[in-house]
Amino acid sequence: MSFIDADKRKFFNEVKEKSGQPIELCYQCQKCASGCIATGFADYYPNEIIRLVQLGQKERVLSSSSIWICSSCETCGVRCPNGINTAEVMDTLKEMAIAAGMVKEKNINLFHNTFLNSVRSYGRVYEMGMMVTYKIKSGDMFSDIPVGMEMFRKGKMPVLPHRIKAIGKIKDIFNNTTR
Ligand code: SF4
Ligand code: SF4
Known about the structure:
Order of helices and strands: HHHHHHHHHHH
Oligomer: single chain
Radius of gyration: 19 Å
Distance between the termini: 28 Å
Largest sheet: none
Strand content: under 5%
Mean pLDDT: 93
Shape: elongated
CATH topology of the largest domain: Fumarate Reductase Iron-sulfur Protein, Chain B, domain 2
Bound molecules: iron/sulfur cluster
CATH class of the largest domain: Mainly Alpha
CATH architecture of the largest domain: Orthogonal Bundle
């Protein structure tokens, strides 16, 4: 990609390098967007995020909701004729948004971290503990009570946590991958 603005070039190169994806090859065929489950909720389609990265639009990309609404289903990457795994790009942009203090969807980031902390502690998700922690920290105490009650009734939400035997290996993974 050729840029006049050095900051725009720097942003593009950083995203390309960190994600490991050939972002410059995107020619806007929109195969990614046509299979994306998140387009109805996000502010940009996945092909638009890729285009904004190509154009070095750091502020618009890092402050978007799209990078948080993306569920990493990887449908876009499977469909892309140029081998661009947009889910990897989205993950990279999430990390860059956190580092830049530009997280738009704060509760999604909170849920993400609460989930990972639960896995780090027990080697699996402790649903009850994760839900209580998330609810307290987000201040959104009552919105999911019917779903939570149904899960509890069906035995999907045990009161006490269960730690897996190989918890040391899980902690090694976190220690080796946490940046
Ligand atoms: S499918 Fe690939 S080439 Fe097509 S718009 Fe999406 S990222 Fe670009
Ligand atoms: S990985 Fe994200 S951007 Fe790609 S199709 Fe799934 S939800 Fe959409």
